[in-house]
Design brief:
Layout (H helix, E strand, L loop, with lengths): L2 H5 L5 E7 L13 E7 L3 E3 L5 E9 L12 E7 L6 E4 L12 E9 L10 E4 L1 E5 L10 E2 L3 E4 L2
Length: 150
Amino acid sequence: MKLHHYLLGLISVLFLSASCQKEGENVLSFTPYLELESINKEIITEFEDSIIIYINFEDGDGDLGRQDPDSNSLYIKDFRLNKAEYYHIPPITPDDEKLQTIGKFRVFIPTLFVIGSGNEEKTDITIRVKDQSGKWSNSITTPKITILKQ
C-alpha cells in the first residue's frame, strides 16, 4: 500500500452546520474561504493517536461539494510528502441553488507516523477546497504537529 494512501487513507468530512441567505442578499465572496478553528492534538504517538482538524468555511454561492463521489475537491497535503491527496466532499446545498453558506467541517486523519529513522518528526497539514465552478479556496495550514515514534 502506498505510504500516502495509508497516511491519509480515512478522511472524514462532516459539515456540522450551515446557514443560507437568498442569492440577491449576497455579502460573501463566490470564492470559498477557509479558516482554521483548531486541531485536537499537536503532539501524537505514531499509530496510536488521530488528528482532527476543525475548519470554518464561507462560500457566497454555496457550490461546495459535488454529487459525483469520484469528483474530488478536498486537497490535503502532509508537509513531509511530495504529493497531496484529494478527497470527495458531498454537496452542502441542494442542486442548482445559489445560497450563501457559512459553517464548519472537520477533517479526520486516523494516524500519522515517523517516515525517517529518527525518534520523532514534525509536520504540518495544508488544506484547501475547490467549488463546483473550479475556484480554489485559500490554503490553511495547521500548527506544527510532533509525531513521536512508538
